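Hey L., structure's done. Input below.
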Amino acid sequence: MNETTEFEIIDGCLIRYTGNGPHAELPAGVTRIGESAFLACEELRSVSVPDGVTEIEKDAFADCVNLEQILLPDSIHRIGENAFHSCSSLRIIRLPSDLTELGSKAFACCTALETIRIPGSIAVIPNECFIGCDALWEVILEPGITAIKDFAFADNPSLLHLELADTVTDIGPYAFQNGKSLKEVSFSKHLNAIRTYAFYGCEELENVFFPEGLETIDPWAFSDCRKLRDFVLPSTLQTIGFRAFAGCESITAVHLPDRVAVLDGAVFDECTNLKDVTLPCGITELRRLNFADCTSLKRIVVPSGVAALGEGVFRGCDHLLEVVLPEGLQSIGDRAFEGCEALAGLEMPDTVTAIGARAFYHCSSLASVMIPKDVFRIEESTFEGCGHLADIRLPENLGFIDDRAFFGCGQLIHLNMPEGIRYICKDVFTGCDRLEKLQIPETIEFNGSPQE
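Output:
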């Protein structure tokens, strides 16, 4: 073992620093800085590292809260896990040009770090590498970098300028989550997927340029990017995950490419300024809450291949005036049009066999409805609160009307019950104050009274 007054060195590895001054100059002959060698040296402000050092190991400078400057030679090829974690005074660091490996959390919580350029010799930026760097405003990734892993740059509220290398093929979950100052992102032409929560909560993000070749946008990827403007989705896109663009209040128009086969639930939920939507011709289902609370949406044409409308798919679209439903549609889910207060009419194709509970709940402008011939059951509260509903035609095959199905339909005057109906449940016609004529077959069974 080689000892000086401040350094413990074994076979070229600096094991421990025992000094207490503001500056440390490593002696010649050191090739590695060992694990926790400078851990929590709170008096340390600057370090000079000699050429020939090749590795900085795990936790080497972690919690050196007053470290402001460290000069790293180009001989370093590896910086280990947590190496500079919580060096909260470190403002600038130049990474060596031949660096090939960064450990996870290597610069996590370096709250004073302002800018970083990462050389292309590093193929992968690991998990949480720069998470929680509050002052980090500029990130430049040089060509050669292929992957940005989970939380790599998450929770960096000052991040303003992001330059992604054209070689990046994978952006991992939560990679830039809560980058609250980021305004623009251009992606590599080689990128095929944007992972879960990648840009979630980037509140100032306005412009995103998606590349041709992109196939997947994962759940929550751009959720709550409230200033995100209209964008062009590439023709190669196939899947958009749950709540991928939910809460993006500034989007006004969306054209979904025809290759999109999966539009997962709540993708555009709470996009309150969305007015114009073009759906892909190959889609077979609109899933739950896809366009819920899109309060500016006025018209939607559902493609011919769609067989099911999911739960709450247009719930709360209170300016929706016109919905064109295709032949071949089989089911309308629970709450599908709940709260669509401006919807005055809707033509349901004969192929519909099921209408869910509260499907038209409080569609207060709905004036007339013809229930398709193969619908057997009207579910609970299906038309409750449809205060202008005056004309409804029930199919001959109807057998069951559930609780509160027409509760509060104050304009309903006449209703002919089909001969085959067997059950009418509780409070079905409560609040139908103008209902004068109700023909009830002798075979009917009650659960509660239709007059209650």
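The chain has three domains: 1-113, 114-283, 306-452. Residues 448-452 have pLDDT under 50 and may be disordered.

-- N.
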